Amino acid sequence: MTVEVKVAEAVVQVAEEPVKVVAEEAEKEVAEEKCEKDESKPKIVEKSSSYREESNFLSDLKEHEKKALSELKSKLEEAILGNTLFKKEEKKEATKKPSNEEEKEKTEEKATEECEKEAEKKDECEEDTKTEEKPEDECEKPQEAAEEKADEECVKPQETECETEQQQAEADAAAQVDRDISIWGVPLLPSKGNESTNVVLLKFLRAREFKVNDAFEMLKKTLQWRKEFKIDSILDEEFGADLTSAAYMSGTDKQGHPICYNIFGVLDNEEIYEKTLATEEKREQFLRWRVQLMEKGIQELNFNPDGINSLVQINDLKNSPGPSKKEVRAAVNKAVALLQDNYPEFVAKNIFINVPFWYYAFHSLLTPFLTQRTRSKLVFARPSKVTETLLKYIPIQEIPIQYGGIKRENDFEFSVGDGEATEVVIKAGSTQTIEIPTPEAGTTFIWDLIVLGWEVNYTEEFVPTDENSYTMIIQKGKKMCSDEAPVRKTFKNQEPGKIILTVHNCSGKKKKLFYRYKVKKACF
């Protein structure tokens, strides 16, 4: 009944949520216009301070957090040294028992036979007592002695065997204590004094709101799962290229977090579905592939207290599979559950783009069940706000061109080492010129340029230093539409001068322009 009521409320909110979102965005735009008076000056894109991760330095932790960390370390130390961190393997014990079972059975049968013989003697003795009326002492004394002897013979083998098994178990446990247990390359034994151990343990504590027992159980389950799932060998496995477009690692955000893109629409393709999710075996391979991708992303992290130890997830919901693709949804949900249960606090930001209106209702249904920490990491962007939203967290040169950025796949011209793009705000109805100096003849220049939303006039020309030379038109004036791809041009000058890029904002709104350029190296 409760579920039905919540679903009904969510359906009602489908119509209300978009209005609320649009109103909030309108207020943001008004506020931004008031604050930006001197934005026409070029500037380097600065790092965003819109969200901040919790500190991993002990000195920054609250008292109850320090206490919880200390308690978890004590429990973990005890579990590792006591060899109780993992479930005991019953298979090995089962293989040891059969070798002694025959002897044990023979001993038990022999003892049983002796007990039966003594019981018969007792019966005979009682009959003789009745007929001959002999004194009880004469009959009972030998009988009691025989019984005690038989009991000793029955109990001794069992006691000896139990003691031997116990001693053997203790010896095996002492011999099997693994002080080098680690996770993601970080040693877990607290007494080793590695600072990264605290960082990892804090992830489990934060995932369980600093409840020590819950965090410890989560850690134990994660370690057990990694053992059973054979994570240590997963990086060496090959899964083919069919799924590479469904999720991939690419670039970093403004704070240095590696970015993972999840493209749900790919799984709606019938051909890819048949190759990757059509059977149970393929769905299991899909899970292993997704876990492998997560492990590859973690290899780029730094578990020092001041290091980057989490990822940014970009989830593209465009053309995501509908309700009819139950197998796809089940596989995706299982993968998400695995990542949530075994990779706690590994997401710095979870950004959903190309979000349909109905998804806001779905999110509002889930929100009451989410912690404040989880809610603070969620970001949603409608199709018209994708680039604008991503730019809050990711530099333009790290955003793929399909999402309004200037990052190209397998780009051999620009690299991370070439620096950040420059941002310029063009006011409504104004013109912005960008000059690229070319002091030496015979030099090849390459540049990228993009205007968010475009709807501007754009020209390119080369102006020689020599006033007697003619200006060369590289690109005639062109009206750039909203769906235009980023401009990339290459030009080789024959004499000293400068390249001038001119952008005229003929719209009634301000525009953001980003550009970068470099000298292109000659290929031999």
Uncertain residue segments: 1-41, 43-51, 90-99, 129-136
Shape: elongated
- Measure the end-to-end span: 73 Å
Q: How many DSSP-defined strands?
A: 16
Beta-strand fraction estimate? 15-25%
Q: Helix segment count?
A: 12
- Give the overall average pLDDT: 81
Spatial order of strands in the largest sheet: 1-9-16-11-14
Round the Cα radius of gyration to an integer and report it: 36 Å
Report the order of strands and helices. Answer: HEHHHEEHHEEHHEHEHHEHEEEEEEEE
Helix fraction, binned, reads 40-55%
Largest sheet geometry = 5 strands, antiparallel
Structural class: alpha+beta
Question: How do the strands and helices of this protein lay out in sequence?
Answer:
Blueprint lengths: L1 H34 L7 E2 L18 H19 L8 H43 L3 H41 L5 E2 L2 E2 L7 H13 L4 H17 L18 E6 L5 E6 L6 H7 L3 H19 L12 E6 L9 H17 L4 E7 L3 H10 L5 H4 L2 E4 L4 H6 L30 E5 L4 E8 L5 E8 L4 E9 L7 E9 L6 E6 L4 E8 L6 E9 L5
Parallel strand pairs: 5-6, 6-7, 7-8
Antiparallel strand pairs: 1-9, 2-3, 4-5, 9-16, 10-15, 11-14, 11-16, 12-13, 12-15
Helix pairs in contact: 1-10, 2-5, 2-6, 3-4, 5-6, 8-9
